[in-house]
Write a structure and sequence with these properties.
Order of helices and strands: HEHEEEEHEEEEEHEEEEEEH
Largest sheet: 12 strands, mixed
Oligomer: single chain
CATH topology: Acetoacetate decarboxylase-like
Distance between the termini: 28 Å
Number of helices: 5
Mean pLDDT: 95
Low-confidence stretches: none
Structural class: mainly beta
Radius of gyration: 19 Å
Number of strands: 16
CATH superfamily: Acetoacetate decarboxylase-like
Shape: globular
Length: about 250
């Protein structure tokens, strides 16, 4: 393969890339969101500066995506924390567990999604919407919500899903130091909501050293939603460079 052809590639291996070039369209993406109150001190240990914590809240989310352009079908589960940055309110995406390798690879390489391999599920059990997360053979989370108990105002559902999302982009260098360490922001675009509901919900988190969701313990359930959508994820932009001073000192241009 010629040098110019190598420079056109987005990922490896060259003969069978881990994921295709986007954009990625999500059809019939289904959310189970449970917002809960947690311990403020626990949040302070994990939310990176310069983000500021708004309230001691966490959103536990499970997303089933049956039709994603180029990536297939998969499920994600994660924790999202309400924050602000320079006065702008948004959410910090703390951790995600995903059952699809292309989605993990493109999320980490081409963007900044904090994805790890896990086994999340979203399904209906009789009259209950259920979200679970297993890490390896162990259960990490059980979430339950009454199935379509009450309609949720579409405006509220849209506000839930379109808040700016902040993430950390960290790429190591070969010398063991950070090559990239940035705070980035992204947002959902072209959102269509097909239905939205709320209802009673419960959430159990179980201790696991490599999937430490329980480090943000559940103290009180605040809100739950079940939302069906089509959407596109916008490309992220850098809002803060943690290595800016080192780069300036070394005369490195971004």
């Amino acid at each position: 393969m010629l040098i110019e052809d190598v420079k056109k590639q987005m990922t490896t291996p060259l003969g069978a890339p881990a994921y295709p070039k986007g954009p990625y369209f999500f059809h019939n993406r289904e959310y189970l969101n449970i917002v809960y109150r947690t311990d403020l001190d626990s949040l302070r240990k994990i939310v990176p500066e310069p983000l500021e914590i708004e309230e001691p809240l966490v959103k536990f989310e499970v997303m089933y995506m049956p039709d994603v352009t180029g990536l297939g079908a998969y499920t994600e589960c994660g924790q999202v924390i309400p924050v602000s940055f320079n006065g702008e309110k948004g959410e910090y995406l703390h951790a995600m567990y995903v059952d699809n390798h292309p989605a993990i690879a493109v999320g980490r390489e081409a963007s900044a999604y904090p994805k790890k391999l896990g086994a999340p599920k979203l399904f209906i059990d009789s009259d209950t919407l259920v979200g679970t997360l297993d890490y390896g053979s162990l259960r990490v989370a059980n979430a339950t919500m009454g199935f379509k108990h009450e309609p949720l105002d579409i405006r509220i559902a849209r506000e839930e899903l379109t808040r700016p999302t902040f993430m950390l982009k960290i790429v190591p260098d070969f010398n063991g130091k950070q090559k990239v360490c940035e705070l980035v922001k992204t947002e959902i675009s072209d959102l269509t909501i097909h239905g939205a509901w709320t209802g009673p919900a419960r959430l159990q988190l179980f201790e696991h050293v490599l999937a430490p969701m329980a480090d943000l313990p559940v103290r009180e359930i605040v809100h739950a939603s079940h939302i069906l959508t089509d959407l596109i994820l916008a490309a992220p932009s850098v809002v803060y460079d943690y290595l800016a001073e080192e780069k300036a000192a070394a005369g490195v241009k971004r």
